[in-house]
Amino acid sequence: MTIQEIEEQIIDEFSAFEDWLDKYAYIIDLGRECPMIDEKDKTENNLIKGCQSRVWLACQRDDEGRLHFRADSDAVITKGIISLLIRAFDGQTADDILASDVHFIDEIGLKEHLSPTRSNGLTAMLKQIKMYAIAYSVKQ
How far apart are CA 140 and CA 138, in angstroms? Predict the structure, then answer.
């Protein structure tokens, strides 16, 4: 699936919920399904700067040039948010990630319903994903 197709799927899923308490509960559930980072990868280099909670994100490129992300966080909502981002970008090429506009975040109203510190964390997570894509696009 393309990033755009995954984004549309996420938008559809979130439209099924009437209020934000239900959406938060769904985000927390997504965090339980997050592709877990190996303990050995919970390093300072993989720690995302700018998040109030601790969030680790690791990335590898496979032989076909697709990026694969793994993450963890010490906060359940944050873990759900990074899981949502991984869902959109895991298995995509660096070029596709860099070209994406990540419109689903605005469409589902995520940024406007987060506290300022969590919103900053979301921005930092997106930035780190894009930085991995830049790094791997240069290595090709």
Answer: 6
Asked if 70 and 41 count as a contact pair (C-beta separation under 8 A), the reply is yes
What whole-number distance in Å separates Cα of residue 65 and Cα of residue 140? 8
Longest dimension (CA), the chain: 44
Whole-model pTM: value is: 0.91
Active site residues per annotation: 51
Report how far residue 97's alpha carbon sits from residue 120's, in angstroms, rounded to the nearest whole number. 20
Q: List, run by run, the mean pLDDT of 10-residue segments along the chain (140 residues).
A: 95 93 93 85 91 90 94 91 95 96 91 85 94 84
Closest CA to 70 of 113, 109, 50, 41: 41
Question: At 32, is the secondary structure helix, strand, or coil?
Answer: helix
Cβ of 98: how many Cβ atoms within 10 Å?
A: 14
What DSSP element (H or E) covers 84? helix 76-89
Residue with structure tokens 């944050």?
A: 78
